[in-house]
Amino acid sequence: SSGINAEWPLRPGTAPTFSTMLLHFLLLFSLTEQSDLKIISTPDGTSHPEPCSLTCAGATTSGSRWKDSTTYPGRAYIDVFYSACGFVSLPVVTVAGKHPAELAFTSPYSTAATVYTVAGTTAALANRQKWVVHWSAFGYMC
User: Fold this and answer.
1) Residues sharing a CB contact under 8 Å with residue 142, sequence separation 6 or more, in sequence order
2) Torsion angle, CA of 70/75/78/80, rounded to 10 degrees?
3) 23 has a pLDDT exceeding 80
4) Quick check: 34 pLDDT over 60?
5) What are the residues facing 57 on neighbouring strands?
6) Contact, 85 vs 91, CB < 8 A?
7) DSSP assignment of the chain, as one string?
8) Can you tell me the distance from the alpha carbon of 4 to that of 24, in angstroms, rounded to the nearest whole number?
9) What was the pLDDT predicted at 124?
10) pLDDT at 35
11) Is 141 buried (19+), middle (13-18) or exposed (0-12) by CB count in 10 A?
12) Burial class (CB in 10 A: 0-12, 13-18, 19+), 115
């Protein structure tokens, strides 16, 4: 046995072994120390020192509710929230989904971006097919 607890997340009432905690610490440390993220430009034109750059990513859940747009009739939309990332200025945001050609989004705001479908896609269809949007945001934390 390697001594590494392969069950993650841990079951209630169990504790990680020392080697598991050390492995996670070393992995986290190496990922933080080896970051090569360089942000060339941002939507609001701000720049910060490179150690402040941050990548944050997430996805809507399959239970998220798409809504029909009144701003762009014939399209559905969903908001993706990244306020938990802690950006201090507007990030660069990218989105993707199961059908990437069917998604577009508005300029990001400080805590969220709105993702739209192409014309002819309703909220009912997106909800029925349980569309999920994957997003990545690149910005500054200091």
Assistant:
1) 48, 49, 51, 52, 88
2) -110
3) no
4) no
5) 136
6) yes
7) --S----SSPPTT----HHHHHHHHHHHHHHHHT--------TT-----GGGEEEEEEE--TT---EE-SSSTT-EEEEEE-GGG--SSPPEEEEEESSGGGEEEPPP-SSEEEEEEPTT--HHHHHHTT--EEEEEEEE--
8) 11
9) 92
10) 57
11) middle
12) buried
Model confidence at 16, pLDDT cuts 50, 70, 90, reads low
Please, what is the average pLDDT of the chain? 77
Residue corresponding to tokens 């201090």: 88
As given in the structure block, the two tokens for residue 140 are: 């500054």
8 Å CB contact between 81 and 112? yes
Q: How far apart are CA 78 and CA 2, in angstroms?
A: 45
Burial environment of residue 5 by CB neighbours within 10 A (0 to 12, 13 to 18, 19 or more) = middle
pTM of the model: 0.68
Q: How far apart are CA 97 and CA 60, in angstroms?
A: 10
Instruction: Kindly state the tokens that stand for 74.
Output: 């014939």
User: Which of these, 37, 57, 82, lies nearest to 134 by C-alpha position?
Assistant: 57
